[in-house]
Amino acid sequence: SGCNSESRGALVVLEGLDRSGKTSQSSRLLTYLEGLGHSVELWRFPDRSTNVGQMISSYLSNKSQLDDHTIHLLFSANRWEKRSLMETKLKTGTTLIVDRYSYSGVAFSSAKGLGDEWCKAPEIGLLAPDLVLYLDIQPEKAAERGGYGGEKYEQLEFQRKVAQCYQVLHDASWMIVDACRPIEDIEKQLQELVLECVMACQKGKPLANLWS
Ligand code: NYM
Fold first, then answer.
1. ipTM of the complex
2. Tell me: the pLDDT tens digits for 108-166?
3. CA 54 to CA 48: how far, in whole Å?
4. Three-state SS across 5-46?
5. Residue 188: CB partners within 8 Å, gap ≥ 6?
6. How far apart are alpha carbons 129 and 87 in whole angstroms?
């Protein structure tokens, strides 16, 4: 470690309610890190390009109905099918900026009433993020932002429950970012946090598994 050719990439996750700004901040982070010459990729979950992802997409757009447990396990399977590629990328020095991860999985399903521990179980053994950036916004404020797209879960009442469920998931890897500020201010703060994380991973911070 310390040697550039051996250093690993960072696993950085953005989380937050729908319309909290995750997607635009993720792509800004990508541009920023690329500009600094880092090897970096932007990922998102659900990854709708796989077979499992297509089942999820169909569920979210109300084209199919699934039992709450079933859809929960599909979201998890969708992460598991990317786990080995994720590990390879990180170990070969690519930083991954990931728009949603296991925390969305637990927060959205437990907001429906599924037990926390049950929701977490299938996530055990997935790679643990080095940094989770939680874009913190009140559900009412998020709802004001041009409205929701009409997919499942995109309703104020449900988003309120999701916000509460996110609360209990915070751990040492989380940074709570006030997502109500101007977009450039948030961008600046995220850049600093991510750069620090990327440096720590380059210096040999070990990869870990959830939930740690
Ligand atoms: N979602 C996302 C879940 O319910 N569980 C998960 O594990 C993940 C990754 O899917 N409302 C929900 C949150 C979103 C929806 O995500 C689709 P997006 O970022 O709008 O494509």
1. 0.99
2. 999 999 999 999 999 999 999 999 999 999 999 999 987 788 899 999 999 999 999 99
3. 5
4. HHCCCCEEEEEECCCCCHHHHHHHHHHHHHHCCCCEEEEECC
5. none
6. 11
Instruction: Please choose, from the candidates 128, 103, 102, 137, the residue with its C-alpha nearest in 3D space to the C-alpha of residue 208.
Output: 128
- Closest ligand 1 atom to residue 149 Cα is 20
Angle between helices 102-110 and 68-91 in degrees, nearest 10: 170
The one-letter amino acid at 169: L
Question: What's the CATH architecture for 11-201?
Answer: 3-Layer(aba) Sandwich (3.40)
* 45 CA from centroid of ligand 1 (Å): 7
Ligand 1 atom closest to 100 (CA): 9
Instruction: For residue 37, report the distance from its CA to the centre of ligand 1, in Å.
Output: 30
Q: Indicate the helix (H) or strand (E) that contains 91.
A: helix 68-91
**Cα angle at 90 between 4 and 208, to 5 degrees?**
110
Model confidence pTM above 0.90: yes
The predicted pLDDT at position 1 comes to 40
